[in-house]
Design a protein that fits this description.
alpha/beta, 18 helices, 7 strands, Rossmann fold, 3 domains, 5-stranded parallel beta sheet, two-stranded parallel ribbon
Length: 386
């Protein structure tokens, strides 16, 4: 165990750095905003204020509150919103642009809060902390990062949680509706609340112009399902804007990234851009085959801490072993077994979920034979760790 921790010290350093990080949007302050930038930001702010005016006064988010949030005076914010900030002042454009960038960041945070899903059962497990650390490093370096692991480890839930950690960030899922470069660009246009364009070239230009200004984190979930053309389109956007990107997927993502690395091809160009990378099961492997578990007992306790029912100590240990069982479904399998066991406990009038109830729930979910195989695998895994 000690050797494994020494081998993984770089990852631990990144995790520690990400814990003190607060989400931010990186702004390119080296250039003056153009008319299109100004028009886009003001349009969004004015539409927001119009919607707020329809609310009762006590619930309204007006100019005063916005000014307080972005640490500017009410008069300055009002002048900028109404397009009458004194341009004759020294550094007038610079100050106007500074306020507009703050307003742009504020509106991105507001949209994120409205779109944020309720993350029931989510906790910052060791795996989630590692994903956050890679995201933080990717944003800091302005690169394309990648993480992969078996299904059920919590990548998607963590990505959704990262939307709050990095205000203005976007999450695109490479599902059936996002299998071509054009569909991917459409998904980005929609996520960024930009005006739809008819041609791919126009979409690319609009996206690049906005990302070049804000450099917001773009996360692509289920990236192993994306075609090489889609991933290469993402790479081209990154090259044009230096916007940080994070690819999340199954281990097949690693195979896809490495497939053409030795060729003079799109695959080789993409592979050369992807840094940092992280196999989330790396901690579990070592020279003697006895690395750290994928999930700890503490991780499982965090996940079920908000549950209305209690899980017996041996039940928590059983769930932890299940979460670490290869190909079992990870945390998703734990959640399913625990929910069903909780229902069974309620029917019996019990408030404590025992290991026996969890095993019965697994039998109902997987069938008796499937559950027996799983229990045998858990015994073998436990003997290795012991």
């Amino acid at each position: 165990m000690t050797d494994d921790r020494k081998q993984d010290q770089p990852m631990e350093s990144l995790v520690q750095a990400s814990r003190v990080h607060r989400g931010y949007v990186m702004d390119d302050t080296s250039r003056q905003l153009n008319n299109a930038d100004v028009g886009r930001i003001l349009k969004v702010v004015r539409e927001f204020l119009d919607r707020e005016n329809d609310k009762p006064r006590r619930d309204r988010f007006g100019v005063s509150k916005i000014a307080k949030k972005i640490a500017e005076s009410k008069s300055t914010v009002s002048q900028v919103i109404n397009s009458n900030y004194p341009k004759g002042k020294e550094d007038g454009y610079r100050k106007r642009d500074e306020v507009l960038r703050k307003l742009d960041r504020f509106m991105a945070e507001q949209r994120q809060r409205m779109d944020m899903p309720v993350l029931s059962g989510f906790a910052w497990t060791t795996i989630a902390e590692e994903i956050k650390a890679i995201a933080h490093t990717t944003v800091m370096l302005g690169t394309i990062g990648a993480v992969w692991s078996p299904a059920g480890c919590g990548k998607t839930l963590t990505a959704k949680a990262l939307l709050a950690e990095f205000p203005g960030s976007m999450l695109i899922t490479a599902d059936e509706s996002c299998r071509t470069p054009g569909a991917f660009l459409d998904a980005l246009v929609d996520a960024m609340h930009l005006r739809p364009e008819r041609y791919n070239r126009s979409r690319f230009k609009t996206i690049a112009q906005t990302l070049r200004e804000s450099k917001r984190l773009v996360m692509i979930d289920e990236a192993h399902l994306a075609s090489l053309d889609v991933l290469n389109t993402a790479r081209q956007i990154h090259d044009a804007t230096d916007a940080p990107m994070l690819l999340l997927g199954l281990p097949a993502l690693a195979q896809k990234l490495m497939a053409g690395r030795g060729d003079d091809s799109k695959g080789a160009t993409l592979y050369s851009r992807v840094r940092p990378v992280r196999d989330l099961t790396e901690r579990c492997r070592s020279g003697n085959g006895r690395g750290e578990p994928l999930f700890s007992v503490a991780d499982v306790k965090k996940i079920f801490a908000r549950s209305a029912v209690r899980i017996a100590s041996e039940g928590v240990q059983w769930l932890q072993a299940l979460a670490c069982l290869p190909e079992a479904g990870g945390l998703r399998a734990c959640d399913g077994a625990a929910q069903l066991a909780a229902h069974m406990a309620k029917q019996k009038g019990e408030t404590l979920i025992s290991k026996a109830l969890l095993v019965q729930a697994a039998q109902l979910l997987l069938g008796v034979e499937g559950a027996r195989r799983m229990v045998n695998q858990l015994k073998q895994l436990s003997s290795k760790v012991a």
